Fold these 3 entries.
Entry 1:
Amino acid sequence: MNAPFKLRPYQQEAVDATLNHFRKSDESAVIVLPTGAGKSLVIAELARLARRRILVLTHVKELVEQNHAKYESYGLTGGIFSAGLKRKESHHQVTFASVQSVSANLDQFRDEYSLVIIDECHRVSGVDTSQYQRIIELLREQNDSLKVLGLTATPYRLAMGWIYRYHYRGFVRGEDNKPFQHCIYELPLSYMISRGYLARPELVNAAVAQYDFSALPQDRFGEYAENDVNQLLSKHKRVTRSIIEQVAELAAERQGVMIFAATVDHAREITDYLPERETALITGVTDQKDRDLLIQRFKQRQLKYLVNVSVLTTGFDAPHVDFIAILRPTQSVSLYQQIVGRGLRLDEGKQECLVIDYAGNHVNLHHPEVGEPKPNPDSEPVQVFCPGCGFANIFWGKTDGDGRVIEHYGRRCQGLLEPEDGIHSERPQQCDYRFRFKECPHCGAENDIAARNCHECQQAIIDPDDQLRDALKLKDAMVIRCAGLSLGAEGSKLKIIYHGEDGEELSESFDFSKPGQRAVFNRLFGRRFANGQAPKVLGSAAEVLELQALLPAPDFVIARKEKHYWRVQERVFDYQGSFRKAF
C-alpha cells in the first residue's frame, strides 16, 4: 500500500540507513533526529515495510498513541498494548506498546519478533535488569537474530554518557558497555532550522536579574541537589518575581508559554506570580487524569502558561508554543535541546520561538553534546586534532582570546581507524592515542587514567591513592600537592622544580647529553606537552625551556630521602582519587 504522504528527504535517508544496516548486521542501532523531525513517520514507514512481527516501545502513552496513529494513517491496522490507554492487544503484526505494560506482562510476548523499535531510546540504560533490557532478552530467546533500533533526539545520558559506541562518520563514543552499538544516521538541529523544517529559536539574554547557581556543589553528573537549589532560590524571591513579571510582559504577544522550573517548590512559587485562570502546573506527582486535562486545555489555548518540573521535556507536542522560559540549571546539552525543542515545531502563523535562559546555563544550542559532564563553569566544547590519526575530537576545554585551545580534558582519541589492506573486521578499531594516560609499570603500555589493570599485559596498576597513602606512612618519604613547576638549565642539564601548595619544593635534573637521561625525560614528559595535543621528542634542555609554558605540572609528587637530598620517585598526573589536589 502506498503511503498517504511523501517522506522528507532526511526521513527517507534514515529509513534507508536502517535497511542497509540490518541487511548486513544484527547489532543494535540508533537513529538521531531532532525534536520535531518526525520520528513517528520514520517508525511508521519501517513498520509498513516489515514482513515479520515488530514491537514498537516507548515510555509514555502519548507517544504510543502518536506512533500508532501515524502507522494507521497508511490504512494499516496495528495493535496497542498500554494500560494507560486501556488496550492490551498483542496479536497484530505490529504492536505499539508502553515499556511498563510489556514488562508487567512478559508472558504475552513469547512469539518471535524480528525487530524492536524503541522511541526516546536515550531512556534505555545499560543495566541488565532494566525493563527495556528484560524485554529484549526475552525476545532474543525466541529469535537470536532480533534487530533492535532506537530513535532519539538526544543520544546521551548523564549517568552513562553516549548510549552508543560507534558512529557511522568514523568515530567512537567510549567503552563497550553501551545499550546500542551503532549510530547509523544523525541530523543536526541546525539543519532542520536552516531548511525551514523547524521554527527559528530567538535566543535572548535575560534583561532582568538571573539566578547564579555556580556556587552550588555539583554531583558527578554536573547536576545540583534539590535541597541546595531550594535554599538558594528561597533567598532570591525578588529575582523570581521580577523574572516572572518580565515573562508575563513578553508573553502578551505570544500564543503559548512553557516555563521550566528547577524544583517543585520553585514551580509553585512561579505559579503564584502568574494569572491563575491562564496557568497550569505539572510535576511528577500530578495525577494522570489532571495532567491529561491540563495539557489538553493548554493545547486548546484555554491556558497560556504551562509551568513544569522535568516532566515535559520529551513526548510532549504543542506546536503553538512560541515562548520558552528556562529557570532551571543544567549542564546537559541534550536536556537543553529537549527543553528548547518544545517550542520549535511549526505552526500556522508562527515565525520563531522566543527562548530566554534565566539560569545562566551558557549552553550552545547548536553544539553537539561533548559526552562528559562539564568539568567546570569555564569549560566550552573545543576541537582537538589527534596527533596519531588526525581525527577532530570534541572535548571540554578552554581557549584564549584568539580561540586557540589552551587546555582540554579529553582522554582518548575518538577516531576509528581504516582497516588495513582492505581487511574489514566485524568491529572497527578505535585509535589508541591517549591524550591523558597512566603508564603500566610492568610493560610500559598507556592506559586510561582510571584503569586498575593494564589493557596489554593485564597486570594490576598501582592505584594512585594507594601510592599516596603508602608514601604518607613512611618517615623517609615526602608527598607534595604540586601547585606548579619551573624550569632551569645549565648547559645540557635541565632542572625541574616542583612547587608545593604550602611552599615546599622538590626538584630533579636530566642531563640531555646522556642518551639514557634524555630518553627518560621524553618518556615521562614528551607525551604530556599541551595535554598531549603536541607530543614532543626533545633533544636539548634549551628546547624544553622554549616550550615550558606547554608542560603541565603533576598533581602530586612523591620523593624518598637519600642521605642529604630528596629523590623524586613518582609524578602523579591527571589524578582522579579522593585526596585533595592543590588549588
Entry 2:
Amino acid sequence: MTCIAGWVGLGPDPDRRTAGVAAMAAAMTPGGPPAHGTWTDGNALLAFPGPPGARPAALVEDGEVTAVIAFAGTLYGPEGVRRVLDARGHRPRSGGDPETVLHAYREWGADCPVRLDGAFAFALWDVRRRRLLLARDRLGVRPLHYARLGDELAFASEPKALLAGEAVDPAADADSLRELFTQIKTPGRSVFRGVDEVRPGHVVELADGWLTERAYWRLQSRPHPDDRDTTVATVRLLLSDAVNRMLPEEPAPCVLLSGGLDSGAVAALAARTSAERGAKPLLTATGTFLGHAENFRPDHVRATADAPYAAELARHLGSEHVDVVLGTADLADPAGRLAVLRAQDRPTPFAEMDVAAHLLFAAVRERAGVVLSGEAADELFGGFPWMHDPELVRTGHFPWVAYERSHEQSRDGLGLGLFDRGLLRGLDLAGFGADSYRQAIGEVPRLDGENAAERRMRELCHLHLTRWLPRLLDRDDRLSRAVGLDARMPFCDHRLVEYAFNVPWRMKSFDGREKSLLRAAVAPLLPRSVAQRRKSPFPVNQDPAYARMLQRELAAVLRDPAAPVAPLLDGAAARAAAGAEWPGGSDWLARTNIEFALQLNTWLAEYRVQLAV
C-alpha cells in the first residue's frame, strides 16, 4: 500500500473506527495481502504503508510518543532540510522521509510543509495537542481526501477508501455531476457527496473540534527582471536541477517518450545525469498502437504519429528503448477498463487514453520502479492550441472549454452528446462554468504595471495550473500507483513553476510558436526534428474495430432496462450513435460520447452510487 488512511475523534463506537480503517486500507490494496501498519492512541487511528505490525514513524520525547505520521509519497533532495534539522539538534532514527517530516513539524510546527520539496500527502497526529494535520504537496501530485463526521474526521488517499470504510455513503448530487460533466477541476471538491479533497499546497487542521484549512503555498506575481538569454539559461538550469533531484540513483528509472519537446527535454537531461553518474543507459518507453505508424491519419490535433520521433530521440540519446504496442483487444478488455475506472474513482470521456496509459505504466513497471514524464510543460510554457488563438484567448471562459465546444461533436461539452438535454439544462453547466471561471479569475495574483495582453496570458497560465493540470496529475498518479509505479513530473518542481509563471508571454512565445522559451532552452540537447515538432496529444487508437466494440456495448446498455445510466441518456441520440457509420470508424470525438456513457454506467453500478439530482 502506498496510500494512507485514518479516523480521528471520540465517537461512541471505537470498534467501528477500527473496522472502518481496516476496510479503507484494504480498498487501496485490492487483490493482495495487507500492506499497511496501524497505530492508535484511542483518539486517532492511522493506517500507513508497511507490513502488518509495523510501527509508524514517531516523535518520542522522554520515552513518550508525542507525534506520529502516516506518509505517502517522496521527498526530493531532502538532504538540505535534513542538514538544517541536524544543525538544530534533531536526530532522526532512520533518516527516512516520514521522520524528516516529523522533525520538521517539531521544529516549525504546522508551517513545516513550506520546508519540504516533493510529491507527498501526509496525516500527522500530535498526541499531546490532540491535533491532526493533513497536508498535500504544492501542485497536488499526491491525492488526499477526507470526510467530516460530526466531531470526527475520516481521511484517506482515495475516495474509494472512505466509501469502503462506510465513512460516507456512495452518493452523487448535482454538483458531483457538474464536476463529472465539465473539464474543470474545482479545488477541494470530489465527485462524491460528503467527500472533500485537501487542496494542493494546503494544510487542513482538526483541533478542539474545529476544522480549518489554509494555504502554505500559492503562486505569486513578481516582476521578471531577466533578459531572454538569461531566462533561457535559467529555465534550462531549473529543469535540469528538477530532473536531477527526481532521478533515483537506483534502480535505473524510465522516461516516457512521446517524441515531442516536453518528454524529450526530460529524457535528454536524465540521460546526461545518468551518464555523469556512470549509471546504466537510460530506459525510455513509448506507447503506440498496432499498425498505428503505418496507418496513421492526421486529425485536427494530431498531425504526426509519435513512434518515429520517439525512436529517433532514443537513438540520439543512446537509451534502452521499448515500444509498448497495444492492440484493440488490449483496450477493449473489460477487466482492464474496470481497473482503470477503479484506479481513478470516477468516469471520464478519455477511457481509451486512460487504459492505454495504464497498460503503458504496467509495461514500464516490469522494468523500472520510477518513471519520469513531461507532464505540465504545456501549462507552464503555452503549449496548447487555444492559447494561441486570439478568439479563444479573449473568451470569457476557460479556453479549453470554448475550444471543445467549437467542435460540433462536443458542443454540449466533451463526451456529453448522448445525455438527456433536460438533464443538461437542469444542471446548468454553462452557469456552473461561469461561476467557476469567476472564482478562478479572482484567485489570479495581479502585477502592477502589467499591460492588458500580458495580464490576460498570466490569467490563462494560472487557470491551467489550478483548474486543468490537477486532473492530469491525479490521473497520472492514480494510474501509475495502481501498478506499483512511482511517476514523477520534473515540470511540477515548484521553483520552475514559480519562475516560469512570471516570465512574460512575449518571451514565452518570442518567435510566434508554442513553447518558444522551452524550445530555446532544450533544443541543443535534442534532434532538430524533435525540437521543432508541433505538439501532438496522447495518441488514440484508429482501428475501426474499437469503435464497433463501443457501439456493441452501448447497444447492450440500451437493451438493459436496469442499466443505471439509462435514465440520464437521450435515447434517440444513443440509438443513433450505436448504429452510426463513421468514416473508418475512427471519429474520436464521437467515440468520447460513447466512452463516457459506458464509463458512467459502470461507475454507477460498481460503486452503487445513489444519484440525488
Entry 3:
Amino acid sequence: MRKTVSSCKELTRNLWWSWDTEAKEIFRELSPILWERVNHNPIELLRHISNDELQARFHCDLGEKTERVAARFRSYMAETDTWAARNTPELVENPVAYFCAEFGIHESVRIYSGGLGVLAGDHIKSASDLGINFVGITLFYKEGYFRQYLNHDGWQLEDYPLQYPESLPIEKVTGPDGKDLIISVSIAQSEVFAQAWRLKVGRATLYLLDTNIPANESHYRDICCRVYGGDQNMRINQEIVLGIGGVKLLDALGINPAVYHMNEGHSAFLTLELLSRELAAGTPIEQARLKVKNRCVFTTHTPVPAGHDRFSRDMMHYTFDHYIRECGISFDEMMLLGSEDAKNPHGLFTMTVLALNFSRAANGVSRLHGEVSRQMWKTLYGVESEDEVPIGHITNGVHAQSWATPTTDRFWRRFTRSIDTLCSSQEAAEEVLARVSNEDLWSLRYHLKRNLIDFIHRYLANQLFHQHTYSMYPEYDSSRLAKNTLSPDVLTIGFARRFATYKRAPLIFRDLDRLNRIINHPTMPVQIIFAGKAHPHDDAGKEYIRQIVEHSRRPQFAGKIIFLENYNLGVAKRMVSGVDVWLNNPVRPMEASGTSGEKTVLNGGLNFSVLDGWWPEAYNGENGWSIGNGEVFENYEEQDRFDADKLYDVLENQIIPTFYERDESNLPYNWLKKIRNAIATIAPVYNTHRMVREYAETYYLNREKN
C-alpha cells in the first residue's frame, strides 16, 4: 500500500485532479467533513491523515480507484498525440507565454479575484488538454483575495487570511546550482528581487513571482501581498514585477516563447523589457519595435474607458527613472508608447495603449466587445472607419470538465465517453441528447437542485457563518429557513458575480410589490439565490450587497431570497449546477463577455440575460431568454426602469409559466425542450477548447499568409 499512498500524494502535486471527477472523489472519500473544512485542498487534507491510516484505507476499493486514477494521470501527462501536435507543432516546440495578473484554477489556490482570473484558469486547463506547450506567468499573493463577511447591517467586511507555500501544490524554482532562482527588477531607485514558485496545471506550468523575501526592503516585500491590493503605487509596482519580472524569469529559465500573450493590460510592461533587450543588442529603434510587436498578442477585457490602467507622468518618471537610463530610449519616448495622443508625452500613460502598440494581433472577448473596443481605440490608429481598427474578437468560453459536478459528469458518461463530446459539435451534442429521455434529464435537474439546497443549508449553518452573520436575520434562524423554505420543486434563479455597479445586482428589487407577487405566487412560486463580492474600495458595490441583504430580511422574502457570503469558485460550482435560471442584467454594453452563464448549460440550466457580452451571439430565441432587444438609453434611470420592466414581463409571462407547465407525465416538456436546445447550441461553441484552438490558429501562430 506504500505505492498507493505515494500515488495519492503524486496526484496532489498537480492541479489536474481539480478537473477530474474520480480524483476529487478519492480525496472526499478519505474524509468528507475534513475535505470541506480544508476548502478542498488535498495537501492540507493529507496533513491531517497519517500514513498508517492511508495504508489501511487503501486496502479496500479506494486503493484500486487511486491506482486507476494515478495511471490515467500518468497516461495523460505522457500523451504525445495531442491536438497541438497534429495541428500546431510550433506551439509544442516553443511555449506560449501567457501573462495574467490572476489565475482562478481552484478555490484552494487563492490567486484570483473574479472573471478575468477564472477565464485564465480555464484557458490554461484547455491548453493542457489540447497539448499546447503553455507557460503562465502571474504573482504569488500571500494573502490572495479577501474572505468576505457581512456585519449586522449586511455591510461587507474583508479578512485576508495568509496562504502558505507548504499548503499548496507549488515548489520553489531553483537554478542549476540548486539555489533559489532570483530575478530582479528596477523600481524607482531600488533593485527589487523576486523568487519564483512553480505550479503544475496538467501538462501546463504556471510560474508565480514572489517579492516576499529578506533581500527586499520591507515595503517591497508586500508588492505580491494581495490581488489588486493597495493604491496606484502598489498597482504599478505589481505590474512591473509581473511584466518585466516575468520576461526576466523566462530568460533565466532558458524559455524562448513562440509568443507572449498579454491577457489584459496589467502585464504590458513586458514589451518595454523586450524592447530594451533589442536595443541593447544594437537593433535600430524602429526595427526593434517591429521585432517586439511580432512576438506579442494582446487580449483586452475592458469595455469602458475608465476601466483601463492609467498612470500619471510624475508616477511614471519616479518609478521608471532608473530603468529608462539603461533602456536605450528617452523618458518622453517611453511616455509616447503609452499615450492616447501619439504627439503628447505629457499626459497619462495607458497600459492598454502600450499593449496595443506592441501587439501584432489584438482582440476583445466577444463580438460586441470587439465592436466596442474598435470604437474606443479608433483615434489611436488615426483611421476614419472602425472597420479599419485592427482589433478582432475571440469570444470567451469555459472549461467544461471543470464546471461539471460529479453528478453531472456521471450522468453524461452514461450516454457518451466524455462530457467533452457535447462540446465538440452541435451534431455530436444532438446525437447524445437523442439518447437521453426527458425523465433522465428532469431527474438530473432535481438531483442537482437538491444538492444545491443541501449545500446552502450546510453553508449557512457552518461555524464561520454562525459567528459573523446569523444575526443578519435577527427574527429568524436562517439555516432553519433555508432548510424549511428552499425547495427543489420551486423555480430557482441564481445571480452570482462581482458586485460592480454596472452589473446591477439589485435590479430585480426595483418594484418590491411586483416581486412579492412573483416570489409568493400561490401555485408558481420563485426563489432567488445571490452571491458575490464587491471590491474592498467599491462602496457603491458594497451598498448593493447591503440592499439585497436588507430585502432578504423582509418577512415576505425571508427564506426565499438568500445571500451567500464569501463567494468563491467552490460556491460558484454549486450555484451554476443547481439553479434553473442564471440571471444577468448588466448595463449594455459594459459586460465584455461574461462566462458564468456558459457554466450552467451542461448542468441543464438556462440563461436569462441582457443582450450583452457573449449572449447576443448565443441567444436564438429557444435556448434561454433575453431582457429586451439590446435597447440602450443615455439616461441611467430610464435604462434601469426599462430593463426592470422587461425583466418582470419575461419572468411572469414566459419563464415561470414554462417551468410550471407540465404534461401528463408531470414533466415540463417545453422547459426540457429549451434545455436540449441550450446544450446543443451553446456547449459546442462557448467552451475554452474552442477558444484556445482559435487563439492558437488565429493569433499564436505567425505563419505567413498565402
